[in-house]
Amino acid sequence: MSKSIHDMGWDELVLGAAVHSFKEEIDYNPSQVLPENRDYAETNSKYKYVGDWRVFKPVWNTDLCIHCQFCWLYCPDTSILSREKKMIGFDYDHCKGCGICQEVCPTNPKSIIMFTEQTEEEEALNQWPEKKGSK
Fold first, then answer.
1. 3-class secondary structure for the chain?
2. First-to-last CA distance in the chain?
3. CA 3 to the chain's CA centroid
4. pLDDT at 117
5. Domain boundaries, the chain
6. What confidence tens digit (pLDDT) does each residue in 27-47 have?
7. Between 97 and which of 54, 80, 103, 132 could a Cys-Cys bridge form, CB atoms 3.0 to 4.6 Å apart?
8. What CATH number labels 49-128?
């Protein structure tokens, strides 16, 4: 009898195997079930904390954010937390510090800037650049 994919270790999976995100094949409606209330499978990366080797982290300036959702759309790790089309923060357990969120941010100055991992949020906000003038 073959093992279920949920019972296999990472080194037992065959090339091209699908690792399902949820315990059951359910089509979750994001507007009805928040991510933290979903029944994630043990194989899902939600339970693997991969942000602890990050060198740079994004810091968010709420006063500058226009909630365009570009950061949420382009984040390769789904580390942008959003509710009702408004950013509410970061999932630092899964953010790898790639900086894509900063790159796609359209505000001037940007509402997301990368700082070293050791920089405290208050210190980062105090270092925020001024608006660049247009010529």
1. CCCCHHHCCHHHCCCCCCCCCECCCCCCCCCCCCHHHCCECCCCHHHCCCHHHCCEEEEECCCCCCCCCHHHHHCCCCCEEEECCEEEEECCCCCCCCCHHHHHCCCCCCCEEEEECCCCHHHHHHCCCCCCCCC
2. 71
3. 31
4. 94
5. 1-48, 49-128
6. 656 667 776 777 777 766 677
7. 54
8. 3.30.70.20
